[in-house]
């Protein structure tokens, strides 16, 4: 039996509103994944979420607002996941960089609504990515200034992490599981061995 999309009537109004908003965002991600960005319309999302057009517009007054909401939600989830990974790493330096790499250690982790949302925003209006750019700048600053790493090593961790994420997203000649592991382990070991990293950077200058 299909799960009912009716709002639980015994919940407080504010909590019901949050649940409805989350359901609309999930519906938008489903429409994009199933039919593509070009098929993202307010009517389709409202129908997928099981809400009226008026109920939809109460939460999101436009398509741009919907995509920004989707972006903010998934980037917030991603930021939280990275923080949880970093908190679980016992390292004097480079915990966030190691978390950044661990996030893409398995290719399935990159197949999230994050990718769907970013692509949707870029396809509709590049300006909608402003908040996402700010998040990546925060991560970059954290890698370079708060992690205790050399700037080049921090940048390398980000390039490998972002690169593998994009490879998975578009299926761009993905590496084998062993190659992926070796690359991530190589950079992770470089992060952990500060002296070796300094020597390698010095030899490249």
The rough form would be described as elongated
Order of helices and strands: HHHHHHHHHH
Beta-strand percentage range: under 5%
Provide the structure class: mainly alpha
Major sheet summary line: none
| Low-pLDDT segments, ≥5 res | 1-7
From the alpha-carbon coordinates, what is the Rg to the nearest angstrom? Answer: 20 Å
How many strand elements?
A: 0
Number of helices: 10
Query: Which bin fits the share of residues in helices?
Result: over 70%
Q: What's the average pLDDT?
A: 82
What is the rounded distance between the termini?
65 Å
Short description:
The protein has 205 residues and is mainly α.
Which helices and strands, and how do they pair?
Blueprint: H1 13-35, H2 42-49, H3 53-59, H4 63-87, H5 95-103, H6 113-124, H7 130-146, H8 151-170, H9 177-192, H10 194-204
Helix pairs in contact: 1-2, 1-4, 4-5, 4-6, 5-8, 5-9, 7-8, 8-9
What do these coordinates show?
This protein is mainly alpha-helical and 205 residues long. It contains 10 helices and no strands. Mean pLDDT is 82; it is low at 1-7.
Offer a few descriptive terms:
single chain; 205 residues; 10 helices; disordered N terminus
């Amino acid at each position: 039996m299909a799960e009912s999309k009716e709002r639980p009537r015994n919940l407080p109004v504010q909590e019901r509103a949050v649940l409805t908003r989350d359901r609309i965002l999930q519906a938008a991600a489903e429409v994009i994944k199933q039919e593509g960005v070009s098929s993202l319309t307010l009517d389709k999302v409202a129908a997928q979420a099981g809400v009226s057009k008026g109920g939809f517009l109460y939460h999101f007054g436009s398509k741009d607002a919907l995509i920004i909401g989707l972006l903010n939600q998934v980037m917030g989830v991603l930021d939280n996941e990275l923080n949880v990974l970093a908190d679980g790493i016992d390292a004097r330096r480079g915990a966030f960089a190691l978390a950044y790499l661990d996030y893409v250690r398995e290719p399935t982790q990159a197949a999230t609504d994050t990718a769907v949302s970013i692509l949707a925003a870029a396809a509709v209006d590049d300006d909608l990515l402003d908040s996402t750019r700010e998040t990546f700048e925060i991560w970059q600053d954290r890698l370079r200034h708060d992690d205790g790493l050399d700037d080049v090593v921090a940048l390398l961790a980000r390039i490998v992490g972002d690169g593998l994420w994009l490879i998975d997203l578009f299926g761009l000649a993905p590496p084998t599981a062993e190659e992926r592991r070796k690359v991530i382990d190589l950079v992770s070991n470089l992060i952990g061995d500060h002296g070796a990293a300094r020597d390698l950077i010095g030899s490249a200058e």
